[in-house]
Structures are given as structure tokens and as C-alpha cells.
């Protein structure tokens, strides 16, 4: 049934229309019974359904329904698996239908600018392409069940400190290439029903009343057709927000902002057509859900099994000297650390799920009949405070010393990272670091299993035999850990972020989190591996890194062409072979390295990836495509994406630091950048542009000859002091006005030269 929404709006009173633009309560939108407009519910996500039926609150202090806690985004991004994220989305969509939830809030795609952001566990990656691909698949999965998503937090919300008022100060290129790019592809391809605007200001204007962001970019450029809702409490000025494109304020405002809207329309300061447009957007999504209800299937056990599968695909084996997989029989293995018995598997705040079931590693190893090795346990530490308990430490050291292998389950307690505040350092609790140090003194065979929502410093990394990064992997975390540790499954996750050696190495270190009024993004586009790799800086583990119990060989890389126009698509193919003796999955990453030097760009950037399953000895061909955006950077002269003519390296890699194959393609563009030539334009700039290079080159040769001098009058000392190389470099860095001094050009001749050069470059845009 297709509703005539505009006819419905025409029958609404001004007060009813204003009322549609704010929540009824914490989680429900208002309905209008006489017009058949139903009340609908939205609920927190994004890695589980946090539905509250009674005492509602934003940060999760009051209990929500029993639900399935899937792995958080910091983990699922490491799967590099679009199909897996879609399957996760489908499960969430089923749950929402069963629980009569019209929109689940998520996914969250904000970039991990700093490892200190308290909400990093909810975010996918430091890389906008990976974040965008994971988000698009998640959205498509949820919305295939006719349940809406709300991609968040739009935009540049990369810290918790003063998040409701601080201004993110970002230049246009950085904003487009890094922070908006994570939203752009999911919105264009995934088509979420709603977008949630962030709390913060962007370059001085609140996101909730930023017309450029919410209308010019989101709707006019990207074609978004749903409604924009506020983050809970993000509205600063309701009328300005409505004008900017903020349709729905959440949660309920007690009627105050509804009255402001009515008063503004009556006073003529708000055109009623703006209100009508907002109501139309909201009603379209409400009726989309209400009129196309699907049977829900909240099968908690099946979804728990899916959570375990996703966790298994997402954990990252960071280090292994051969100690893993653990022997399934005949050995004595010590599980050390409280997280072995009571794992940390999700973050704090609005995404906190009331899990229907929790499986620890200690539970899982007891429930796995194929594992007959003896497993002992010692708690080792407490998480209530970061203080060593001598008795717990002594017990753990004794238990480890009596075993053949010690597996230490460590990481960050809840108090170390949560929505609402940022971390102040990148360290693990010192009590846990001490535990690891003391066990290493008595046990040479030691494995560390980490539970954390963002990177930690690992002062013991070189001394332990293996490290398994679990991140926050949901309620079935223990089942996945045991399968991976004992080789019942093969690790296949890869890092979605760089793990630096120390916090001070991070590119945002000097500019995070700002002074509370502003935070300046001075590192520009050099975020994460874009910075570390360009500087060739040592890191603990690079972006895209992850080990397996088998090995993979890349070969026979082919490009569909070696020359292309900037609107062509390039197809890249290569072969991947499992050269080990265990079935496994490899994530092939495709990077592009701009060799043109037309702009200051990172050494390379991720532009595609594929995950491939291979039996031992099996070889498969994989293909990936690259389009104009794969080569382009955002040019602020033309306010558009631009790929300069020249060479680009195509790199097939196992991580950002493990390049296996490379080929070069030459790109040609017909796009001409505007070139305004003036007295202070340098010779180097003119030589770099093929339109003006021929004009200036002939003059430069004559001028260089005059400056160097010559003939019999040149002294040997002068020749040594003023070399041709030095003269040419001086000329390249000279502005046109210097021609008056060095070649005797008159002011009129200089003006004529500038006009000639401008004519060669084309009209000044």
C-alpha cells in the first residue's frame, strides 16, 4: 500500500506537525491516531539490541531486555568480510522485527583518530574505505529485513571530551578524504533510513544546525532520502536545526521545542514548508516500517552461534613463534587471569547489551570434548582497581610454573574505556603487566590473549611466545578463543588499525583532545597508517597485519590495462595459494600509491580488499576493481575529487607493511585545474604545468645563461660559487617579479608575460 503522505500532512494541525519532529519519550516517536500515524520505537545498537521497555535512559544505567551481544565494531572490522557484516545485520534486523523496533541506532563509523577515544570500540577503523565498506554491508543486512538503520555520528565526532560543545577544526580536504568518506559510501550504497548527527561543532557550527553538512553535502551531493535525527541531547537551536536539515530531535523535549517550532511558523521566522518537508521525511520511514512488517525471529541460540562465528573470523593473531595452536591432548595448560573466567567482551555506555548468555574461555574449554589436555586456572588479578594483589599474583605464578604452557587472559577493565570519557594513556593496568612479567620468569611458554576496545602498549610483546587480539568480541568470546587457541579454527582477522609502540607516536598526540573549546586536526589526512607508513616509523603491529596457522603465496598479478582515463575502471587480478597444511582464509589488501607528486599524499592508501578461503595446496584467482575515487584526492580549488595525470602503483599486500606484488598504471585526466598566474607565481609552478612550461622554459634558459655568466671573463672561483645546478634551482624558486631584477624586464613587459602565461593556462577560474 502506497501512502499519500502529502495528503496526510495537509490534514495535520501545525501543532501535530511540530510534534512529529521530536520524540514522544526516550525511544518512541509520536503518532497521530486520527490520521493512522502509528507510534514507532527506535533502539540502541549497533552490535546488539538494547531495547528498554520501562525505565529508559541513554547510557544504559537501567536494564534492557535480554539480547545477544555480537562482537563490537572494533573487532568485526578486523574480519574484512562484507558478507559477514551483512549476515550480522540480517540477524539484528530479525531481532528488531520480533521486538517491534523500527530503527536500530548504528552503525558507528567515526574514524579512530586517536587510540584514546573512549568510544573507539564502537567504531570500525582508522581507514575510511574499510569503515565505509563494513558499514555499507551492515546497513544492507539490517534493512533487508525492513528495519531502518541510523548511521552515526555525523560527523567528526572523534573524542568524548567536551563532545557536546567542542568544535572539530578540520580543513576541507581532510574532512572530505578521511572523516566524511567513511559516511559517503554507506549512505550512497547502503541507503540508510536515517542519519544521526553528532553533538560537536564542525569548524564552529554545531552539526545539528550545519546546513552545509546536513543539506548541501548529505542530501544535495550524496542523495540521502531519509530523515536526520539528533544524537540524544545534541540540539542547540531547534529552529536553526530544522532549517539546516535536522528533521527529528531525540529524545522528547517535554513539548518545549515543539512550541518553539509552532511559534516560529506563526511569527514568519520559519517557513512552514520547511516543517512540512521534515515531517514528510519522518513519515516515509515510519510508514515504510509499519506497512511492510515482516515476521521476526529472535532465535537467541542461533544468534549466539552466529556471534561465536563472527568472533572467530574477527580475532587477530598478532604474534606466534610456533607455540600455537595449543596441543589438544597430553599437556598441562594454565589459564591465568580473571578475563579467562569472566571475559570483558563489550564496552560501556549506550551500546551496552544485557547479554542472554556469556561463554568464557574457561567454560568453553571444559565444554569441548576434543580437548583433553589438562587446564588449570588462577585469577591473577582483580579488575576493581589497578593494584597488585600479592596472594592472587603468587597463586598465578605457582600455577603457571607447574604447567607446560601459560595462557594469560589480560586487557582493559570496563573503567579504562567507555562512552562519556576518553582514556588518558594507552597502557594496560600495571597489575596485569606485572603479572605477565612475573610469569615470564617461571614459564618460557607464554601466550597472551587480549580483551580491549582499542590499542594498548605491550612492553612484554617481544618476550611472550604468542599474542591473540580478541578486542571486545561479544558474548561468545570464549568459544571463539578456545577454537582458535587449540587450532579447531584458523585465525583470519587482520588489524583494522595500527598498534603503535607508544601513545606519543600517534599523529594526533599533540592535538588531542584540544582545549575544550576547539580541537585542531593538524595532522590532516595523515591518520593512522597513512602517517606511520609515510614516515617509515616503527610500530608494534601495522595496519592490516594478522597471522594464520597456514601460509599464503601471491602470484600472477594482472591489470586490465596499463593506461586509463580518470573515469575508467581498472580490474586487478592475482592468484592466491595456500602453501601450508591447514585450511584458512587470507585477506588480500589492495593499496594505491600516487607517484605523480601533484599533492602531498600518504605513501599509499587502501582502496579494496577481498577475503578468500583456501584448502591446503589450493589456489584461487581473485579480482578487485578500482575506480576514479581509488586514485583521487580532494582538490579544494575545484571542490571535487581529482586524480592527476601520471603513474600510480597498484600494490597487493598482506598488510600495509607486507607488499607482495606491485604493478604500475598510467592515468590521464582531461580535468584542467584552474591556474591563476600573478607576480609571485614561481618558475617551478609554471614548469610543473604542461600548459605554461613551454612558455617559461625558453625564457629560463636565457636567464640562466645571463646569471651564470661565461666567456673568458669568468673566474674559476666564480664558477665554483655559482654552479649551473644552483642557478637553475634559484630560478625555479623565483617569482615572476624577480625577472625585473635579473633580466631587466620592465613592468609592462612583466605584465605582458603574465598575460601570455595566463592565456596559455586558459581563463582564470
TrEMBL record:
Pfam families, per the entry: Fn3-like, Glyco_hydro_3, Glyco_hydro_3_C
Recorded family membership: Belongs to the glycosyl hydrolase 3 family.
Superkingdom classification of source: Bacteria
GO MF term set: hydrolase activity
Protein name (Swiss-Prot/TrEMBL): Glycoside hydrolase family 3 C-terminal domain-containing protein
Biological classification of the source: Bacteria, Bacillati, Bacillota, Clostridia, Lachnospirales
Record flagged with keyword Signal: no
Keywords: Hydrolase
Domain Fibronectin type III-like positions: 586-656
Originating species: Claveliimonas monacensis
Amino acid at each position: 500500500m502506497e501512502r499519500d503522505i502529502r495528503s496526510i500532512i495537509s490534514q495535520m494541525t501545525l501543532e501535530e506537525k511540530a510534534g512529529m519532529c521530536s520524540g514522544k519519550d526516550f525511544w518512541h516517536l509520536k503518532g497521530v491516531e486520527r490520521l493512522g500515524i502509528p507510534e514507532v520505537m527506535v533502539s540502541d545498537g549497533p552490535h546488539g539490541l538494547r531495547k528498554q521497555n520501562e525505565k529508559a535512559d541513554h547510557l544504559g544505567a537501567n536494564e534492557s531486555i535480554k539480547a545477544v551481544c555480537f562482537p563490537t565494531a572494533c573487532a568485526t572490522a578486523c574480519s574484512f568480510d562484507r558478507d559477514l557484516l551483512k549476515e550480522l545485520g540480517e540477524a539484528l534486523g530479525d531481532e528488531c522485527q520480533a521486538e517491534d523496533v523500527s530503527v536500530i541506532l548504528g552503525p558507528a563509523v567515526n574514524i579512530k583518530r586517536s587510540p584514546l577515544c573512549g568510544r573507539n570500540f564502537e567504531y570500525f577503523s582508522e581507514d575510511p574505505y574499510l569503515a565505509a565498506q563494513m558499514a555499507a554491508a551492515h546497513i544492507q543486512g539490517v534493512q533487508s529485513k525492513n528495519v531502518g538503520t541510523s548511521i552515526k555520528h555525523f560527523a567528526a565526532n572523534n573524542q568524548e571530551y567536551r563532545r557536546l560543545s567542542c568544535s572539530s577544526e578540520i580543513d576541507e580536504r581532510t574532512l572530505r578524504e578521511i572523516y566524511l568518506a567513511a559516511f559517503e559510501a554507506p549512505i550512497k550504497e547502503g541507503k540508510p533510513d536515517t542519519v544521526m548527527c553528532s553533538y560537536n561543532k564542525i569548524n564552529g557550527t554545531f552539526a545539528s544546525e550545519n546546513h552545509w553538512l546536513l543539506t548541501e553535502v548529505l542530501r544535495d551531493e550524496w542523495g540521502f532520502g531519509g530523515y536526520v535525527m539528533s544524537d540524544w541531547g545534541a540540539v542547540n537551536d531547534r529552529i536553526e536545526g530544522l532549517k539546516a536539515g535536522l528533521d527529528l530531535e531525540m529524545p522528547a523535549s517535554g513539548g518545549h521545542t515543539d512550541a518553539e517550532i509552532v511559534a516560529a511558523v506563526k511569527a514568519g521566522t520559519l517557513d512552514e514548508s520547511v516543517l512540512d518537508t521534515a515531517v514528510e521525511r519522518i513519515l516515509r520511514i515510519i510508514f515504510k516500517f509499519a506497512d511492510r512488517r515482516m515476521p521476526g525471529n529472535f532465535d537467541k541460540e542461533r544468534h549466539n552461534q552466529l556471534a561465536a562465528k563472527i568472533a572467530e573470523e574477527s580475532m587477530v593473531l598478532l604474534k606466534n613463534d610456533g607455540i600455537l595452536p595449543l596441543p589438544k591432548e597430553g599437556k598441562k595448560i594454565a589459564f591465568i587471569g580473571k578475563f579467562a573466567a569472566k571475559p570483558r567482551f563489550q564496552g560501556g555506555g549506550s551500546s551496552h547489551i544485557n547479554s542472554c548468555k556469556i561463554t568464557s574461555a574457561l567454560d568453553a574449554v571444559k565444554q569441548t570434548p576434543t580437548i583433553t589436555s589438562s587446564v588449570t586456572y588462577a585469577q591473577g588479578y582483580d579488575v576493581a582497581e589497578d593494584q597488585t594483589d600479592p596472594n592472587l599474583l603468587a597463586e598465578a605464578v605457582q600455577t603457571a610454573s607447574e604447567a607446560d604452557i601459560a595462557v594469560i587472559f589480560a586487557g582493559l577493565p570496563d573503567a579504562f574505556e567507555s562512552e562519556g570519557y576518553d582514556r588518558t594513556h594507552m597502557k594496560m593496568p600495571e597489575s596485569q603487566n606485572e603479572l605477565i612479567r612475573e610469569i615470564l620468569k617461571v614459564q618460557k611458554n607464554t601466550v597472551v590473549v587480549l580483551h580491549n576496545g582499542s590499542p594498548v602498549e605491550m612492553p612484554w610483546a617481544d618476550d611472550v611466545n604468542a599474542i591473540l587480539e580478541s578486542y571486545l568480541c561479544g558474548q561468545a568470546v570464549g568459544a571463539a578463543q578456545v577454537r582458535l587457541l587449540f587450532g579447531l579454527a584458523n585465525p583470519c582477522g587482520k588489524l583494522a588499525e595500527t598498534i603503535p609502540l607508544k601513545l606519543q607516536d600517534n599523529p594526533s598526540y599533540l592535538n588531542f583532545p584540544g582545549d575544550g573549546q576547539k580541537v585542531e586536526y593538524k595532522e590532516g589526512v595523515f591518520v593512522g597508517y597513512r602517517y606511520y607508513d609515510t614516515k617509515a616509523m616503527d610500530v608494534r603491529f601495522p595496519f592490516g597485519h594478522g597471522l594464520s596457522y597456514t601460509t599464503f603465496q601471491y602470484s600472477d598479478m594482472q591489470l586490465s590495462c596499463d593506461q586509463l582515463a580518470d573515469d575508467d575502471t581498472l580490474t586487478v587480478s592475482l592468484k592466491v595459494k595456500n602453501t601450508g597444511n591447514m585450511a584458512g582464509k587470507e585477506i588480500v589488501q589492495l593499496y594505491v600509491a600516487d607517484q605523480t607528486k601533484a599533492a602531498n599524499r600518504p605513501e599509499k592508501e587502501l582502496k579494496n580488499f577481498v577475503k578468500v578461503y583456501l584448502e591446503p595446496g589450493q589456489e584461487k584467482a581473485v579480482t578487485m576493481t578500482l575506480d576514479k575515487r581509488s586514485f583521487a584526492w580532494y582538490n579544494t580549488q575545484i571542490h571535487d575529487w581529482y586524480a592527476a595525470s601520471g603513474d600510480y602503483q597498484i600494490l597487493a599486500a598482506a598488510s600495509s607493511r607486507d607488499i607482495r606484488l606491485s604493478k604500475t598504471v598510467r592515468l590521464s585526466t582531461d580535468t584542467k585545474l584552474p591556474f591563476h598566474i600573478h607576480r609571485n607565481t614561481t618558475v617551478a609552478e609554471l614548469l610543473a604545468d604542461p600548459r605554461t612550461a613551454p612558455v617559461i622554459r625558453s625564457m629560463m634558459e636565457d636567464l640562466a645563461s645571463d646569471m651564470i655568466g661565461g666567456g673568458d671573463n669568468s673566474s674559476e672561483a666564480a664558477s665554483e660559487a655559482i654552479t649551473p645546478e644552483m642557478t637553475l634551482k634559484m630560478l625555479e624558486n623565483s617569482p615572476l617579479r624577480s625577472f625585473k631584477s635579473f633580466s631587466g624586464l620592465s613592468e609592462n613587459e612583466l605584465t605582458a608575460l603574465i598575460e601570455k602565461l595566463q592565456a596559455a593556462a586558459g581563463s582564470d577560474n
